[in-house]
Task: inverse folding
DNA sequence: AACTGATTGTCTATGCTCTAACGATCTTTC
DNA sequence: GAAAGATCGTTAGAGCATAGACAATCAGTT
């Protein structure tokens, strides 16, 4: 009665079935586009989940926390709005994550700029030590992921993804890329 | 005093700066791995945010809601645990999203299986109409994204990503892929 | 100086995500 | 049969994400 899902169903099997089924319901399905987006999102989710569980949550923080700590490490110190732009996240989210990081003593918020609206985010001593240590493990895990590919494939993949990022969605684009 | 971020700083500029800076602090940085993971995650975030804002939130729901509706459309009806496996999300998250979808009259939860632990999720009439309509717009937007690439590049990219998904992280892998 | 408009960081409300724990139910073992 | 173990869906609690509204501040015009 109930259609049973083959127990270990791979992503590719699901893709195939989905394209088949959807093609019955609606014409002109862009199968290649569907596969591409599906796989990009799936890979990103897997990578984030993997690195978060293997590296960051073990160290007591999150992917989001690390991302903010990392850009702050790179630039020395930053204002929240810059963090927001650099890590592609809303100002509200930055504010929220900073609450956690500040509570845990990893960053401090200062009001020392001429422009009194601005907040300066700076790593504490502990924060700097932690993020440097975490980066090593993080980067090691990133490398583990790339071992699936040859050096050449790795470069190719990065190049293609950069190309998509630069162009964005190409048609009917009403709010810029 | 404060290091100022060049206002429209591209992802690539940030990558370059980050690699430079991090290489001063720690040896043996895997720059290619860093770039790859960074760009994959960035692209996925952009795609999800774009499609969510252009298609799904306009229709009154979320990416997560659509994903569940879609797999249910493909299979006719499903149990939450199968949805969980197919969409790579925890059972708890599925349960949470189903609450929203059920509240909005898009799906129903039934207890009609022999195994009385199981719940059967089925689309309502309205749900089926909605998800089919949303799929067309969703898939159109997916195609807009692929226009940045040639047909050949698109296939290449999908193939490389599938390869990474199948292999997973290759070393020090303690909990399976 | 006063008005207008834009920007910054934060707060609220809502939703998705996870882990960990729970009762209910099935399965296996004794 | 009864006890032990596994599985299913849900809940609780925490964190991150968004949009939208807000006070404070700055910049420009008049």
Result:
């Amino acid at each position: 009665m109930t259609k049973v899902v083959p127990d270990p169903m791979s992503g590719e099997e699901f893709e195939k079935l989905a394209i088949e089924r959807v093609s019955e319901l609606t014409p002109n399905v862009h199968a290649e586009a569907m596969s591409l987006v599906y796989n990009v999102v799936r890979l990103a989710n897997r990578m984030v989940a993997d690195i978060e569980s293997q590296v960051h949550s073990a160290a007591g923080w999150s992917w989001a926390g690390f991302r903010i700590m990392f850009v702050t490490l790179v630039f020395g110190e930053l204002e929240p709005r810059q963090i927001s732009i650099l890590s592609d996240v809303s100002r509200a989210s930055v504010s929220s994550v900073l609450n956690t990081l500040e509570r845990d003593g990893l960053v401090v918020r200062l009001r020392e700029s001429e422009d009194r609206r601005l907040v300066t985010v700076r790593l504490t001593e502990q924060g700097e030590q932690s993020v440097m240590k975490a980066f090593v493990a993080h980067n090691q895990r990133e490398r583990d992921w790339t071992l699936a590919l040859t050096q050449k494939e790795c470069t190719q993949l990065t190049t293609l993804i950069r190309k998509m990022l630069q162009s964005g969605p190409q048609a009917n684009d009403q709010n810029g890329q």
